[in-house]
Design brief:
The chain contains 27 helices and 33 strands. With 759 residues, it is α/β, with parallel strands linked by helices. Strands 27-28-29-30-31-32-33 form a 7-stranded parallel beta sheet. Strands 1, 4, 13, 16 and 17 form a 5-stranded mixed beta sheet that branches. Helix 25 links the parallel strand 31 and strand 32. Helix 8 packs across helix 9. The longest helix has 18 residues. The N terminus is likely disordered. GO terms for molecular function: ATP binding; biotin binding; metal ion binding; pyruvate carboxylase activity. Keywords: ATP-binding, Biotin, Ligase, Nucleotide-binding. This is Pyruvate carboxylase. InterPro entries: Aldolase_TIM, ATP-grasp, ATP_grasp_subdomain_1, BC-like_N, Biotin_carboxylation_dom, Biotin_COase_C, CPAse_ATP-bd, PCB-like.
Length: 759
C-alpha cells in the first residue's frame, strides 16, 4: 500500500509494495511528473499569524505538536478527559482544560461542541487535530471554520471528500488512478456485505469508511464469518470514528507492499514502507522504501499528485497504495491528516512537518519559507517501531497497570516520542496501547536496524508487558534486513512469535529481599528446636516505697531545676523509647509489668510516648520518670502540620491537662515559657559545629530550657564528628540520637559523643 502526502501547494505519490503517502509537509524531491503542478501557482492566501494552538488529541501526538509550537513561540493548549487528568500531555502544554465531563473516555475527545467551547473561551487561534479521533471528521473541520478558528489541515471540503473512503475512491477513478476492486459505496447492512462476498468471492476485506489505523477492519475468509465480522467492524468503526459505515474490498492484491508518499503542496517528501503489519496495524515503518524500483516510484508519485491536484488538496496528507509483485500499484485511500509514522520522513529529510503545517495554516507557502524541492534530499534510512503495552506471548493481549521500572534506550541516532513512559505511570485500559515510538536513523537500513536493536535491548520496562521481544525478532530477521517486505511478512514467519522469557533478575531480587524483610527468611533453620518462650522476670517492688527521680525534680522544683540537675549529673542518662511503640506492642507483651520494676529505678531522664491514652497508663507504672511528647512537623504523607494543629492535638490527647513533662517540637518551633524543649538537629559532621553552636546560643536566648538532641538518622556521623560537640554551652544539655546500630557504626559514634561530654 502506498501513501502520498499533499500540502497546500501540491501532492505526491509513492510506490506500492505497501507504501503509504502522507500529505504533511514539503517532500524531498519534485519529480518530472509533477512539473505541471508548480507550487508557485497556488492560490493567494492572506497571511495571519497564529499565536495559540489547541491540540484536539492526547498522548504523544499532542506532545509532538506542543513541542513544535514551543519552538515557534506559539502558546499551546491541551484538552483532557476525566480519565486523563494525570496524563503527561496536560503538563507539556502551556494550558490544559477538561472536556467531556461525564462522557465515556473516547467520547470526550469526540465532543466537538466541548472542544470548540474551550477554544473560543481561551482565545485559541487554531486547532490541530493530530491523528485518530476527529482528525478526519469534516464536521469538526467545518465547526472550526464556522467558529473563526483555523483548522490545521485540509479544508473541510477536502477532509469530507478524502475522509469519506467512498468519495475518495470515486475521486481516484475520476483522476484515472488505479484502484482496488470493491463496493462503489458504503455498506451499512449485513445483507449488502453477504451479497458482495457472494459476488466477488472470498477473501474480502471490511474496512471503516471514515477512519483508518486498522480500526474497523476485518478480513473474511469463510462465508459463515461474514455477518459476525461485519458487526465487529461496524461496532469498532463507530466507537473509534463516530461512524460505522464499512467498505468491502476484494483483497486479490493483499500480499503486496504497503507504501506511502509524504506530500505537501506538491512538494514530495519521498515514500515510506509500511508493509510490516499485524492485524492491519502498522508495526514497523521504514523511510525510504528499500529496494523500490524508481519506475514504480515515478508512477505512484504521478498518480498521487494527480489525485491531490484533482481534489484541490491543501496542507499535509497521505496517499496510500498497494504494490503487487509485478510492480502494479492500486490506490487505497487518502489520510487527510498527519500520520503516526511521519517521524521517519522527518528524520531522512531533516524537515519538521508539524511546524510546516502550522506555517501553511498561517497563509505562508513553502517557497516563502525558503523551501525548494531541490533542497529536499534523502539522508540515509530511518525505522520507526511502535512499542506497545501488549503481551506478545498471549496473542498481544493489552496490558494495563502501573509501570514499576522504566529505563529507556537512547544514544546517537535514536529519537523517542512518548507520553506515559516513566516509572509510576498508569497505563489506562481506555485508549490505544502505544507506549513509545522509537525512531532510529543511520546511513542505510541494516545500520538503522542495528541502532534500533541496541536501543530496544537497553529498555527496561517492568510492571506491564511490552512487545519488545516481538520487535527484536522482526528487526533481526534476515528478510527484513534485506528489505524484502510485503503485507504477509509477519504471517509467513511464525518464528517471530518465539520468545525467550525475560530473566528480570533485578526485580526478582528486590522482591525477594522485600519478602524476607517483611515476612522473615524462608531458609529452614538448622535445628528443629522452637524458639524459647521466656516469661520476663520482674523484680518485686515495694509499692509503698517512694522512689526519687527526675520527674520529682520537675514537679517539685520546676523545669529550671530539672535542666540544672541533668547538667550536673556525673553519669550518663538514657532516654527509653520502648513505650513509643507501646500502642501496638501492649496487646501482646506484659510491657506494663516490666515498666513497674526496672524502669522505675533506671537512670532515665525521659521516656518517649505518642498517644495520651497510652502514656497515662505508662505514667501509672513509672511515676518517677519524666515522659516526653514527640511532635512531628508533617504527617506520614508529607502534609505539614501547623502549630495550632499540634496544640489542639495535645489538648485532645490529654497531654497538657494531665502534665506531659517534655515536648519535642518540629524544627522551626521556638516556644517560650516554663517547659523543657528538646530541639532536634540532623547531625552531619564536624563542618556543622559552628552553625550548631550559633543555633544553640539563639535557642538559649529565646527558650527557657533547652535540650539539644543531635539526630544521626542515616548513620552519617563518624566518631570524629561526634566528638566535635565537646565544649557545648554549659547552659544547655545535649544528647546524641540514632536509629540504627548496623555494623557497629552507630554504636561507635554514640560512644564517642558520650566520651565528648553528652548528658
Amino acid at each position: 500500500m502506498l501513501g502520498a502526502c499533499v500540502s497546500r501547494w501540491g501532492l505526491t505519490g509513492l510506490p506500492l509494495r505497501l507504501l503509504n503517502s502522507k500529505t504533511c509537509c514539503p517532500t524531498t524531491q519534485l519529480y518530472q511528473s509533477q512539473a505541471n503542478y508548480s507550487p508557485n501557482k497556488c492560490k493567494d492566501v492572506e497571511y495571519k499569524p497564529i499565536r495559540s494552538v489547541l491540540v484536539a488529541n492526547r498522548g504523544e501526538i499532542a506532545i509532538r505538536v506542543f513541542r513544535a509550537c514551543s519552538e515557534l513561540g506559539i502558546r499551546s493548549v491541551a484538552i483532557y478527559s476525566e480519565q486523563d487528568k494525570m496524563q503527561v500531555h496536560r503538563q507539556k502544554a502551556d494550558e490544559s482544560y477538561l472536556v467531556g465531563k461525564g462522557l465515556a473516555p473516547v467520547a470526550a475527545y469526540l465532543s466537538i461542541p466541548e472542544i470548540i467551547r474551550v477554544a473560543k473561551e481561551n482565545r485559541v487561534d487554531a486547532i490541530h487535530p493530530g491523528y485518530g479521533f476527529l482528525s478526519e471528521r469534516a464536521d469538526f473541520a467545518q465547526a472550526c471554520v464556522d467558529s473563526g478558528i483555523r483548522f490545521i489541515g485540509p479544508s473541510p471540503r477536502v477532509v469530507h471528500q478524502m475522509g469519506d473512503k467512498v468519495a475518495a475512491r470515486q475521486a481516484a477513478i475520476e483522476a484515472n488512478v488505479p484502484i482496488v476492486p470493491g463496493t462503489s459505496g458504503p455498506v451499512t447492512t449485513t445483507e449488502e456485505a453477504v451479497n458482495f462476498c457472494r459476488e466477488y468471492g472470498l477473501p474480502v476485506i471490511f474496512k471503516a469508511a471514515y477512519g483508518g489505523g486498522g480500526r474497523g477492519m476485518r478480513v473474511v475468509r469463510k462465508m459463515e464469518e461474514v455477518e459476525e465480522l461485519f458487526r465487529r467492524a461496524t461496532s469498532e468503526a463507530l466507537a473509534a470514528f463516530g461512524n460505522g459505515a464499512i467498505l468491502s474490498r476484494d483483497p486479490d492484491t493483499l500480499k503486496c507492499r504497503f507504501l506511502a508518499i509524504e506530500l505537501e503542496t506538491l512538494f514530495i517528501f519521498y515514500e515510506r514502507d509500511c508493509s510490516v503489519q499485524r492485524r492491519h496495524q502498522k508495526v514497523v515503518e521504514i523511510a525510504p522504501a528499500p529496494n523500490l524500483d524508481p519506475a514504480v516510484r515515478e508512477r505512484m508519485t504521478t498518480d498521487a499528485v494527480r489525485l491531490c491536484h484533482h481534489v484541490g488538496y491543501e496542507n499535509a496528507g497521505t496517499v496510500e497504495f498497494l504494490v503487487d509483485e509485478a510492480g502494479r500499484h492500486y490506490f487505497i485511500e487518502v489520510n487527510a491528516r498527519l500520520q503516526v509514522e511521519h517521524t521517519v520522513t522527518e528524520e531522512v529529510t531533516g524537515i519538521d512537518l508539524v511546524q510546516h503545517q502550522v506555517k501553511i495554516a498561517e497563509g505562508l507557502t513553502l517557497p516563502e519559507l525558503g523551501l525548494d524541492q531541490s533542497k529536499i534530499k534523502i539522508q540515509g534510512s530511518a525505522i520507526q517501531c511502535r512499542m506497545t503495552t501488549e503481551d506478545p506471548a498471549k496473542n498481544f493481549q493489552p496490558d494495563t497497570g502501573r509501570i514499576e521500572v522504566f529505563r529507556s534506550g537512547e544514544g546517537m541516532g535514536i529519537r523517542l516520542d512518548s507520553a506515559s513512559a516513566f516509572a509510576g505511570a498508569i497505563i489506562s485500559p481506555y485508549y490505544d496501547s502505544l507506549l513509545v515510538k522509537i525512531i532510529a536513523h543511520a546511513g542505510n537500513l541494516p545500520a538503522s536496524a542495528a541502532k534500533m536493536v541496541r536501543a530496544l535491548r537497553e529498555f527496561r520496562v517492568r510492571g506491564v508487558k511490552t512487545n519488545i521481544p516481538f520487535l527484536l525478532n522482526v528487526l533481526e530477521n534476515q528478510k527484513f534486513l534485506t528489505g524484502t517486505l510485503d503485507t504477509y511478512f509477519i504471517d509467513e514467519h511464525p518464528e517471530l512469535f518465539q520468545f525467550v522469557p525475560s530473566q528480570n533478575r533485578a526485580q526478582k531480587l528486590l522482591n525477594y529481599v522485600g519478602d524476607v524483610l517483611v515476612n522473615g527468611p524462608l531458609t529452614p533453620l538448622g535445628t528443629d528446636l522452637k524458639p524459647a518462650d521466656v516469661e520476663p522476670q520482674v523484680p518485686p517492688v515495694d509499692s509503698a516505697q517512694k522512689l526519687g527521680g527526675f520527674r520529682e525534680i520537675i514537679t517539685e522544683q520546676g523545669p529550671e531545676a530539672f535542666a540544672k540537675a541533668v547538667r550536673n549529673h556525673k553519669g550518663l542518662l538514657l532516654m527509653d523509647t520502648t513505650f513509643r511503640d507501646a500502642q501496638s506492642v501492649s496487646s501482646r507483651h506484659p510491657i506494663w509489668r516490666i515498666g513497674a520494676g526496672p524502669r522505675s529505678t533506671s537512670p532515665c531522664d525521659s521516656c518517649t510516648n505518642v498517644r495520651g491514652s497510652v502514656w497515662r497508663k505508662c505514667d501509672a507504672s513509672c511515676p518517677n520518670i519524666p515522659f516526653q511528647c514527640c511532635l512531628r512537623g508533617a504527617n506520614p504523607s508529607g502534609t505539614p502540620v501547623t502549630r495550632n494543629g499540634s496544640l489542639q492535638f495535645l489538648k485532645i490527647a490529654g497531654f497538657i491537662s494531665t502534665g506531659m513533662d517534655h515536648f519535642r517540637p518540629p524544627r522551626g518551633w521556638c516556644s517560650r515559657g516554663p517547659a523543657i524543649i528538646f530541639w532536634l538537629i540532623s547531625a552531619r559532621g564536624p563542618n556543622i559545629r559552628a552553625y550548631t553552636w550559633l543555633l544553640a546560643d539563639e535557642l538559649v536566648n529565646s527558650c527557657t530550657h533547652v535540650t539539644l538532641r543531635f539526630k544521626d538518622m542515616a548513620r552519617t556521623v563518624k566518631q570524629s564528628g561526634a566528638r566535635c560537640y565537646r565544649g557545648m554551652s554549659n547552659d544547655i544539655t545535649w544528647s546524641p540520637f540514632t536509629y540504627t546500630m548496623t555494623s557497629g557504626a552507630g554504636s561507635g559514634s554514640m560512644l564517642a559523643a558520650c566520651n565528648a561530654g553528652a548528658d
